[in-house]
């Protein structure tokens, strides 16, 4: 019997190409180790990293299918600020969001991949990343997100921002680019078209960025690796 075919046949397949994920470090092949080393090098040298596509194609497709299967009511208008300071302001951002959790097999799989990335980055960069929060972000045609930093004022627990793009066949005239600015300066250092499967990773507190007006519905998963500074511990004096 062809073992490979057999394995495909018996594995539970919540979506095409899905395999149960083994995220233990020993299960990572040389290729993945090289990839994590490259991401880490790019983050420590430049503070950001643009990846054409590093997640399995089956996972990207399943996320896209899940995202597009949600109803408009599953999304809420994105706010700026946090907790009691939240404010919806369509002149600053016009996307609608849906927070991800582990209740759906596809989003759980994505969170497992990001958890693995968290552990690998901590090993190499000693960032002390503690957890990851993420949301589907849906920009209707005409929406944008003005230049901003992801770390909230007075709250520095967002360390690394990630954005995964889920837009098949995105064309230049569709707009919606991510513009990444240097820590100081008015000219973008990167203009990223939100192509299917592409991911941007950057230091949340260092790189102002914006989403240019999109001419087509634009989908992404925006996420943040955070450190835990909510335990009432006081920063040591300098
Ligand atoms: C954000 C954000 C960028 C993008 O959600 O904070 O800046 O390209 N997203 O979607
Ligand atoms: Mn942002």
Description:
With 238 residues, this protein is α+β, with helices and mostly antiparallel strands. Helix content is 25%, strand content 23%. The protein has four helices and eleven strands, in the order H-H-E-H-E-E-H-E-E-E-E-E-E-E-E. The strands form two sheets. A seven-stranded antiparallel beta sheet has the order 1-9-6-11-4-3-2. It has a four-stranded antiparallel beta sheet with strand order 5-10-7-8, with no helix packed on it. The longest helix has 21 residues. The chain is globular, with a radius of gyration of 18 Å. The N and C termini lie far apart (66 Å). The structure holds N-oxalylglycine (OGA) and manganese (II) ion. The site of manganese (II) ion (MN) has 4 residues, from loops.
Please work out how many helical segments DSSP would assign.
4
User: Which class do the helix and strand fractions yield?
Assistant: alpha+beta
Query: What compounds are bound to the protein?
Result: N-oxalylglycine, manganese (II) ion
The oligomeric state is single chain
**Helical content, roughly?**
10-25%
- Overall mean confidence score, pLDDT: 85
Q: Which geometry do the CA atoms define?
A: globular
Spatial order of the strands in the main sheet?
1-9-6-11-4-3-2
Q: Rg from C-alpha positions?
A: 18 Å
Task: Give a quick account of the main beta sheet: strands, pairing sense, barrel closure.
Answer: 7 strands, antiparallel
Number of strands: 11
Low-confidence stretches: 1-21, 233-238
Topology pattern, helix = H, strand = E: HHEHEEHEEEEEEEE
Give the N-to-C terminal Cα separation.
Answer: 66 Å
β-strand percent reads 15-25%
